[in-house]
């Protein structure tokens, strides 16, 4: 017997049964859960990958910022830089730094327990070998070197003063050894005197770039310089270590070194999330001009040491946030502080989830190689 049209219409209007509805709900829940898990896992992968990339960038940018200035350091002073410390002339290295792992680290010029190093550089004005006594198009001193015209100690007689910068640091150099002059003041040219350079150290007995010759010599060069200090310190915004660069001044610090950070100029934040900063100094002790034969030192005192030819900088940096495991419950067990140079971590150091990127660069010091000529 065939079904009546009424029954056929009723059957076509019948909805889903409770069992069918429950099956659909369960299947949908499984699909949604799987999709959610996949999205969360993908998000963790993206987060962890971004964190790793950030740590690579932070370490690379920090190290290259340092090395860019290391290449310029020490011009005119391959045989040492004379500085007045405690009222006495001492011959120093134009590049030096403290080994933080021999005791405490160094934040600014103050010891701290983080084990990081610091680095001091004496940098010439980029125009120091330019045209003497020239001005920029805006009428400002160009920073070019000017020649000394009369031998002796005390105030320097020069043939012009337009390129010098009153109140700034300068160096007087014979291109082998140099003398650091602070708070330079200039006496303008007049018909009887081309010009004079006055400076704070001129009253110190015997102070010059060549004490063994009796003082400055005619033909020496005077040009502006900067003292630059790299170190790690806590960034108050993030609460984490960061690389800073401070301008320096001639004043003995708490560690007995001849320079201090210039408190009048705020330090520059170079790069955030830099956890460790290590410097090693390479010496050509055998005078072989062979980098494979260098002797390496962790830390270098300010007092002059012959044969410095290379600097190796190692920077460890992280990203801003820790990485997580696949359940986003715990940090990754391999993410913990690492050993760098002679800075070793305690055996029981705890993982914190911050991926570390180590960036190491070594550079020869072209401005100090002239010492072997």
Automatic annotation (TrEMBL):
UniProt-recorded name of the protein: PilW family protein
Pfam entry (one): N_methyl
Native source species: Pyxidicoccus parkwayensis
InterPro entries: N_methyl_site (IPR012902), PilW (IPR032092)
């Amino acid at each position: 017997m065939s079904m009546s049209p009424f029954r056929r219409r009723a059957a076509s209007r019948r909805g889903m049964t409770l069992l069918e509805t429950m099956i659909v709900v369960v299947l949908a829940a499984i699909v949604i859960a799987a999709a959610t898990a996949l999205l969360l896992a993908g998000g963790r992968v993206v987060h962890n990958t971004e964190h790793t990339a950030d740590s690579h960038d932070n370490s690379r940018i920090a190290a290259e910022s340092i090395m860019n200035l290391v290449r310029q350091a020490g011009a005119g002073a391959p045989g040492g830089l004379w500085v007045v410390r405690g009222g006495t002339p001492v011959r120093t290295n134009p590049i030096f730094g403290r080994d933080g792992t021999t005791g405490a680290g160094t934040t600014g010029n103050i010891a701290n327990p983080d084990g990081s190093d610091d680095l001091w550089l004496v940098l010439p004005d980029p125009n120091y070998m330019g045209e003497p006594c020239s001005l920029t198009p805006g009428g400002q001193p160009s920073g070019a070197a000017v020649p000394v015209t009369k031998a002796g100690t005390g105030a320097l007689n020069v043939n012009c003063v337009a390129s010098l910068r009153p109140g700034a640091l300068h160096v007087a150099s014979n291109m082998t050894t140099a003398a650091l002059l602070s708070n330079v003041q200039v006496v303008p040219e007049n018909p009887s005197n081309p010009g004079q350079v006055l400076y704070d150290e001129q009253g110190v007995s015997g102070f010059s770039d060549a004490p063994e010759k009796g003082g400055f010599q005619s033909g020496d060069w005077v040009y502006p310089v900067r003292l630059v200090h790299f170190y790690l310190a806590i960034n108050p915004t993030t609460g984490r270590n960061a690389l800073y660069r401070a301008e320096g001044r001639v004043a003995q610090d708490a560690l007995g070194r001849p320079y201090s950070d210039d408190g009048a100029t705020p330090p520059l934040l170079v790069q955030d999330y830099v956890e460790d900063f290590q410097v090693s100094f390479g010496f050509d002790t055998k005078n072989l001009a062979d980098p494979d034969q260098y002797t390496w030192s962790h830390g270098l005192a300010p007092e002059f040491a012959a044969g410095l030819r290379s600097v190796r900088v190692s920077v460890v940096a992280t990203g801003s946030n820790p990485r997580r495991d696949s359940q986003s419950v715990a940090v990754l067990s391999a993410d913990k502080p690492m050993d760098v140079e002679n800075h070793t971590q305690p055996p029981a150091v705890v993982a914190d989830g911050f991926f570390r990127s180590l960036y190491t660069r070594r550079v020869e010091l072209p401005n100090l190689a002239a010492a072997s000529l």
